[in-house]
Design a protein that fits this description.
Elements: H1 3-10, H2 25-54, E1 59-60, H3 102-107, E2 112-119, E3 122-132, E4 135-141, E5 149-151, E6 161-167, E7 170-175, E8 181-185, E9 190-192, E10 194-197, E11 200-201, E12 208-211, E13 219-224, E14 229-232, E15 251-253, H4 260-263, E16 265-270, E17 277-283, E18 286-289, E19 298-303, E20 310-315, E21 323-327, E22 336-340, E23 346-350, E24 354-360, E25 368-374, E26 384-388, E27 391-396, E28 399-403, E29 411-413
Parallel strand pairs: 10-14
Antiparallel strand pairs: 1-11, 2-3, 3-4, 4-5, 6-7, 7-8, 8-9, 12-13, 13-14, 15-16, 16-17, 18-19, 19-20, 20-21, 22-23, 23-24, 24-25, 26-27, 27-28, 28-29
Length: 417
């Protein structure tokens, strides 16, 4: 899920004055699967009983806001020597000279590719975070893994990270709960990212990313890869579906700490301070905003009840009027994320069931499945879909899909070490 969706769903049903919870993506998805299995088992048992008785780069936003140089954090140089433990653990791994080398972790036959990413302008430049027995190793390449650079990232956990490509020669690993962030270069370099609270606008849209900042909803950060600095924008942009910009009005779904799951309503908000407005769009079991839409378009999605159609709520006049378009979608639930494609169609990824992508174009009456990479049994459910530099990229555990035609057809990349 997006950071905003993860944090919003975690807040479900909690009061506004509570401390925001730590989100364990793996536990959320394992719990969902367990509930689904229990429900299925109950149905089967009921059916059996009935039979017996009857028969899922930076440009300053303000004159005094120029980036300050940051001394890069050098990559670790120790030589790990230990062997893997025999029992997996949920504890945060501690990087030390006694840990496995990154190469050993990546090449371990039990290792899983927990996060994957490609450079939007050069799909042969790729990154994968591998995990085995609670330890992690990063595999980076510039030639589609004909050759590989193995990287150790201190304190990197096996789960709960998003991998992004802010520039073709560097990747950003960003924690979904904390401010831990690293830049991993295509050359294998590793630098920690510093946080600065300042309104700075990037020249390249790829340098925007949703960042955890301790609130119920994610913040917006502007990245300076050269200075290894993330500039965090003010709270008025927290939970916004659009990043800051000149003449851009923030808007989003279900003002914090409310969520669709906690209220039974899809709400939209827009504006700042005393000018902020809130409107209920629909009674809903699931729903959120739609990311990556063009300027001037506000779009949100909702599902009234399990198995019901997906309703897209849209406004092109700043929230004055709203239109609703319905699409059949058999699997739409809380694990869906919906994005706008470059041609105006809607792309959804079902992260609970793997990297499964659906598309609804203008004039369609249903989302149709366009990419399917089922998840392993213990998937952490980190799949996502984004529109970057005119391409649509879907990424998950051990697979990335690239579409050059707004999601109609896909090329799958499955080599990650």
């Amino acid at each position: 899920m997006s950071l905003d969706q993860v944090l919003g769903d975690a807040a479900r049903g909690l009061a506004a004055d509570l401390v925001p919870p730590e989100v364990d993506l793996g536990a959320l998805h394992r719990g969902a699967r367990a509930r689904r299995r229990r429900t299925q088992a109950a149905v089967v048992a009921a059916a059996a009983l009935a039979a017996v008785t009857t028969g899922a780069l930076l440009v300053d936003g303000r004159a005094d806001s120029s980036p300050q140089p940051v001394v890069p954090v050098p990559p670790p140089t120790s030589t790990p020597t230990s062997t893997p433990t025999s029992t997996p653990t949920d504890e945060e791994p501690v990087w030390s000279p006694d840990a496995l080398s990154a190469r050993e972790v990546v090449l371990d036959e039990r290792a899983r590719a927990r996060a994957t990413a490609v450079a939007a302008g050069d799909p042969d430049t790729r990154l994968a975070v591998w995990a085995a027995d609670g330890r992690t190793g990063v595999a980076v390449t510039t030639d589609a893994y004909r050759t590989t650079t193995y990287v150790s990232v201190p304190r990197l956990q096996p789960a709960a990270y998003q991998a992004l490509s802010p520039r073709d020669d560097v990747f950003l690993l960003s924690h979904v709960n904390h401010t831990d962030e690293w830049l991993v270069g295509a050359d294998g370099s590793v630098r920690g990212v510093d946080r600065v609270r300042r309104e700075v606008l990037p020249q390249d849209e790829r340098l925007w990313f949703q960042c955890a900042d301790g609130g119920w909803r994610s913040a917006w950060c502007a990245l300076d890869p050269d200075a290894a600095t993330a500039y965090v924008w003010p709270e008025e942009w927290d939970g916004s579906a659009v990043p800051p910009g000149p003449d851009v009005v923030p808007w989003g779904a279900n003002p914090e700490p409310r969520s669709v799951g906690g209220t039974g309503r899809l709400e939209v908000w827009w504006g700042t301070g005393g000018a902020r407005q809130v409107r209920t769009l629909a009674d809903a079991s699931y729903g959120d905003y739609v990311l990556d839409c063009g300027p001037g378009l506000m779009a949100l999605w909702s599902v009234a009840a399990p198995g019901a159609s997906v309703d897209i709520h849209s406004s092109t006049d700043g929230g004055a009027t709203w239109q609703v378009t319905s699409y059949d979608a058999p699997t739409a639930d809380q694990w869906w994320k919906v994005r706008c494609a470059p041609d105006g169609s809607f792309i959804a990824v079902d992260s609970e069931r793997g990297t499964v992508v659906w598309r609804a174009a203008s004039g369609d009456d249903a989302f149709r499945q366009v990419l399917a990479a089922p998840a392993p049994a213990d998937s952490i459910g980190g799949a996502d879909v984004r529109t970057v530099a005119g391409r649509v990229l879907a990424s998950g555990e051990g697979v990335v899909g690239i579409s050059e035609d707004a999601g109609s057809t896909w090329t799958r990349l499955e080599d990650w070490r």
